[in-house]
Amino acid sequence: MKYQSKLFLLGDEIEEEVVGEGVTRKMMGYDDTILMAWVRFEQGSEGYVHAHPHSQVTYVESGAFDFTIGNETKRLTTGDSTYIPPNADHGAVCVGAGVLIDVFSPVREDFLED
């Protein structure tokens, strides 16, 4: 196995990295087949439209986000989730400060490279 996180990851001990204006992220666990990330957004910040070959599920832990997948946009709030197929264009605009939990399969190697 090329990638494997620790077995126990304590949120307060994981470094929060800046990944965009008003967006920070923590890697919450991964191996070669899966990765989970905790992503904090300030109101007005964006996850710009992009695509990748990974399957993605995103859970809205808190806040409000206008998610676009392909040509469809919906407002998601606390407790909502999305499934994003591989290679689908997608992005989100944070309309109420919050946190997303992103799960990717397979691992997002680009998130782990220095």
Structure commentary:
By secondary structure, this protein is mainly beta. The chain has a single domain (11-112), classed as Jelly Rolls (Sandwich). The chain contains 1 helix and 8 strands, in the order ββββββββα. Strands 1, 2, 3, 4, 5, 6, 7 and 8 form an 8-stranded antiparallel beta sheet that branches. A hairpin with a 2-residue loop joins β5 and β6 (72-77). 20% of the residues are buried.
CATH class: Mainly Beta
User: Any guess at the CATH architecture?
Assistant: Sandwich
List the helices and strands in order: EEEEEEEEH
Question: Helical proportion?
Answer: under 10%
Short characterization:
The protein has 114 residues and is mostly beta strands. It is 4% helix and 59% strand. A hairpin with a 2-residue loop joins strand 2 and strand 3.
SSE map:
Elements: E1 17-20, E2 23-31, E3 34-41, E4 46-50, E5 55-69, E6 72-77, E7 81-84, E8 90-105, H1 109-112
Antiparallel strand pairs: 1-2, 2-3, 3-8, 4-8, 5-6, 5-7, 5-8
Tags for this model:
single chain; 114 residues; mainly beta; Jelly Rolls; 8-stranded antiparallel sheet; 1 helix; 8 strands
